[in-house]
Amino acid sequence: MVMTGRLSPPSYFNIDRAQMRRSVSEAFWAMCAADSMSMPVHWYYNIDDIKRDFGGWISGFNSPRDRHPSSILTLSNTTGSGRTAWSTEPKRPDVVGNIILHDKLDLWKASTGSVHYHQGLQAGENTLNVLCALRAAQTLVSGRFTDFSQPDAQAAVLSNYVDFLTTPGTHNDTYAESFHRSFFADWQDTSPSSPGQVLKFAEKRSRQKLSSSHPDSQLDAIGCLTTILPFILLSASANEEQAVSSAVEFVKLTHPHPNVPEYVELYSRALHAVLGGASVRQQAEHALRRLHVWDVCQSYSRRAARFAVSSEKRLKVHQSAVSYLGLACYTKGALSSLFYLAYEFHDNPREGILTNTNCGGENCNRGAALGALLGAGGSYSEAFIPQEWKDNLRDAQEILPDVLQEMQ
């Protein structure tokens, strides 16, 4: 796929610093809200299961049920990427239980086969990927780096990431997706820990995987966007090229798949523009055209417009659109669904976040990236997510105020 064409950047000199900080702040809060809202129904592929398990469509934060109706957690590979049945490499030690997720291996090997991916989390808590993004934001602001694309910034974030995931008791999530398991399957051979050592390891690993004739398809996943969100959000006042470069260079270290950089660039340019005051709807249309799904999205958009706003009939159209465009984790499809929802809910972050949740599938990582876009855009029209949501975001309340204060 070749993606060409770009929108003109917004006029940043017309935007005061207070408004820019509001935009970044709302993007962070909406990122966390969308992830936490979706967490209990993450990877619900039959949307009727949402209504059955929660007595109707999701409208607020919930704890997950112990049982997950679509769970394949017990089929997942505890020694690395993908599923156990896919692994053709010699048997390696379990990463889950030994290196990361120290007390969770029994859940991955449970005989019931229906364990919830996020068993152990409570209403208002965030999944592991967003927790990593929050930690990265902490590291970047406390380090006072002037350019996040530089090696010292990357090294600091990676070193903090290694410390966070390898230290028992740092979080309560049960699941770590393939990119985490793949990273630590390779990391355990030498176990580098200092910033310089971790960066050197990650760079070498990235070069090897990006040049491989058989790239790991599990790394071409929408979780790559959650990983780079703090790099773009905290680069809101930097020029576009510097901001995008920081995201693209970092994601090569965590998701070394040849398709990922161009998707990250597409999303990063859109988010950076919206942080600076550009139209969410215009950016979404531009992205959907570059993804070659604009015509089909317009068809769903016209169908949705026939029904009342916030009605179940309109929701069902959006659910059908997301199911068609991409319900699973693979980046192109999930990115298409994300920008479709951004286009439809460009002026209503609250409804956009709830609709994303109730579409099911890979709604957590899709939601985090969607939330950042909608939150940033909503800050300019005072379409904020509810304060009640912010108050009940447990992890975000512990971390975000300090991050936002450091930005002042």
Automatic annotation (TrEMBL):
Gene3D superfamilies: ADP-ribosylation/Crystallin J1
Protein name: ADP-ribosylglycohydrolase
Family per record: Belongs to the ADP-ribosylglycohydrolase family.
InterPro entries in alphabetical order: ADP-ribosylglycohydrolase (IPR050792), Ribosyl_crysJ1 (IPR005502), Ribosyl_crysJ1_sf (IPR036705)
